[in-house]
Every structure is written in C-alpha cells, then in structure tokens.
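User: I'm designing a mutation panel for SixA phosphatase family protein and want to avoid disrupting the core. Could you give me a predicted structure to guide residue selection? Please restate the sequence first so the numbering is unambiguous.

Assistant: Good idea. Sequence first, for numbering, then the predicted structure tokens:
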Amino acid sequence: MNCKGLLILGCVVGLTACSTSTVYIVRHAEKVSEADTSSLTTEGFERAQQLADRLADERISLILTTPYRRTQQTATPLAHELNVPIESYPAQPVRAVIERLAKAKGKNSLVVGHSNTILDIAKGLGVAPTKSQIESDDHDNLFVVTVRKGLLGTSVRLDEQTYGKPTAP
C-alpha cells in the first residue's frame, strides 16, 4: 500500500474510533404510592410529557427503564413520540445499565431510574453529581452526561439540569 492509501486508512480508522454519546438520566415522575406496582399521579403523567417535550429533539435512540410501571410510564410519552422501544434493565445492581450504555457507543440515551439509583448511574458513567441523595419528593432532576471518545482518550462531562414545572406541595 502506498503512502496515500495508508493515510486514508489511518483517517478512516481514526474517525471510526471517535464518538460522542449523551445519556439523559432522570428519576421516575411522581407516583401514587410506595408500592412497587404504583402508577404515576396526574402530576407525574404531566411531568412525563414535559420530559418528552424537553428531549424530543435530542436524537435519543435508546430508552432504558427498570421493569417498574412508574419508570416505564415516565418514558412512554418520549418513546411514542420518537417511535423508540423501551428496553428494561434490572433496578439493581446499577452495573447492568452502565454496561448496556457502554455498548451504545455514539447513541443518545434516556435512562429512567429511582431515587436510590440515578446518582450511582451517573457516577458509574464517570461523573460526580453535586447531590449526595435524591429526596422522596424530588422528581425534576435531569442529569446530562456527555461521553466523548476520541483518538486521545475519553472525556466525560456532567450538566445538572431540571425539567418540568414544579408540582404543588
């Protein structure tokens, strides 16, 4: 192979090694009760729609939720709008969802979890959220983790946001 061919091959290999993925991590919206089978409240369904409105243009191609109704209901409006199926992951250990996200190289994803898992998921992706815990009435956090893989390594960035209208006390 001549020098020009090697240069082209090197560029192709280099470009295929580069990717950017953005993972949007949220807790499920407001729920009726503490029961595992609990559905969302009216406010929770409104928040789920607000999440769909917020993420509609973010090129999400992977939606992951735990098998619980409240996480699936939170993701459903976006899944319907984008025509993306909801995939289930076990609520614990969070390692399972981290491994699944690692395989989604170059894809944007939504992960809907629980108050006791979303911070660990963010940490598992390599960032350090400022919150140390998610309170039981806290449903508006949106953790945006951007993972850039390039020829010189990987960089991970966290943007902590909120979404939706505040719910009445």
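For picking mutation sites, this is relevant: The beta strands are 19-27, 60-65, 86-88, 108-113, 141-150, 153-162. The longest helix spans residues 3-17.
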